Amino acid sequence: MDRYIDDVMKELGNLQLKEEQKTVIESILKKQDTLAVLPTGYGKSMCYIVPPLILNKEDFTKKHTSLVISPLKTLMKDQISSLREHNIPAYGLLEGAEKEDLAVTCIKDGLASILFASPEVILVKFWRDVITEVYKDRICVVAYDEAHCISEWGLDFRPEYGKVGLLQSIIEAPVLVLSATIRNDIRKDIDRALGLQQHSTKVVATLPDRSNIFLCTDKSSEQYEVELKWILEGVKQKKGKFAKTIIYVNSIALCETLYIWIHSELKSALYNGESIIQNRMVEMYHAHTDDESKQRIMDQFISIDSTIRVLVATVACGMGVNIPNIKLVVLWGLPSTLLLLWQETGRCVRDGSFGLMICYAFKRSVSKPCDICRSNRKFQCKCSSQEYLRSLVETEQCQRSYLLRHFLLDGMSRQLLPCNDFNCTENCHSCSCVKCKCCIVCRRKCECSKNMTKDEIIRTFLED
């Protein structure tokens, strides 16, 4: 591997591999099934991009291919474009076989080094036959990205994704399971679906900590007019300089209610300048938002100098969305699962700067059953993960450690959990104390914050 890795990384734009990425790639090259649980933004894609490129250099008499199964079509299209810019032949089975275009012809001719596929399309007989006839002996790894979607307990469960395990009966290649967040129960589902054995699967896992995000989950009333008023005041005062913010809610109806309230309160202050749509600082995004508006909002919100400062959204603004400079994530109501809470938290400050997650856990949201119990018409939910989520509101422990403990896989040491036993400088406007920047529980234990309200603590971060 070391003999060719430098050449491959130069071809990819002089990138540097992290130790965990190297470990995963080495495992794949040894033909070992591998589970890689690596944080968002860690470069998980390198784990399936690099192996065929190394093998092509080791054995130039044979072409090698990574087959990547992913539920995120938009992300796959972006990766295909990026790889082609580096002259790496990447193609996608993203639609049915009825359209014979250049990409389909190239795939059938066996030109792909990286072959992406959605779970729905890879199960179509036409494409399974192409895989068997053209790529079967060339595939060096079958990678399952966002693999938590395979499990009924995972976020964004996709029934079709749970059926892709039948690929293992026609392809003799190591399996790579990729996700940022997998719990033990989800792992068991994935192992069952893909026919993996825990004792023979290499596990490369890090806790999905985002130490650059201050965590604040606290009890609240359901009076958004009172609890969220500070956001409106901030938009009025700072306009285009207000921290870029997503407010996540649990339903389309609530999304519309909050948006209408903000609209009516801000009036002309809703706009940064002339009252035209291009100057609107608050927008709304949910599953029923029309496609044209979705595209307009995302194109605007993703830009560095976006006019949009606050986006009220449901989980429709979720997987595959990568907006680097979101400073503030507000969860109005406790999400339906701990996984969803952590995923929505992870939308914050992907650029590596410092940000905040504030969850308003009002009573009605705390008592809700989990998604699976609700779908089975069980309205009294006592699932262990849901009880764990509810107790987050009550705990006097560090909220970060409490949340991350839920993501410890079997065999992972509890010593990986963050420890905030640091002295406080008692000057939290410019404090480098880890405790002050950890979570609301740790911050309240600092001498400098004992007499501060939650809103006052939040403002110390937003004033920076």
UniProtKB/TrEMBL annotation:
UniProt superkingdom: Eukaryota
Keyword Transmembrane helix included in the entry's annotation: no
Known EC number: 5.6.2.4
Coiled coil: none
Transmembrane segments: none
Leader peptide range in chain numbering: none
Catalytic activity: Couples ATP hydrolysis with the unwinding of duplex DNA by translocating in the 3'-5' direction
GO cellular component, one term: chromosome
Record-annotated Helicase C-terminal domain positions: 227-400
Similarity comment: family membership: Belongs to the helicase family. RecQ subfamily.
One GO MF term attached to the UniProt entry: hydrolase activity
Annotated ranges, domain Helicase ATP-binding: 25-200
Natural source organism: Mytilus coruscus (Sea mussel)
GO biological process entries: double-strand break repair via homologous recombination; telomere maintenance
Protein name per its UniProtKB record: DNA 3'-5' helicase
Cross-referenced PANTHER family: DNA HELICASE (PTHR13710:SF157), DNA HELICASE RECQ FAMILY MEMBER (PTHR13710)
Taxonomic lineage: Eukaryota, Metazoa, Spiralia, Lophotrochozoa, Mollusca
This protein's UniProt keywords: ATP-binding, Helicase, Hydrolase, Nucleotide-binding
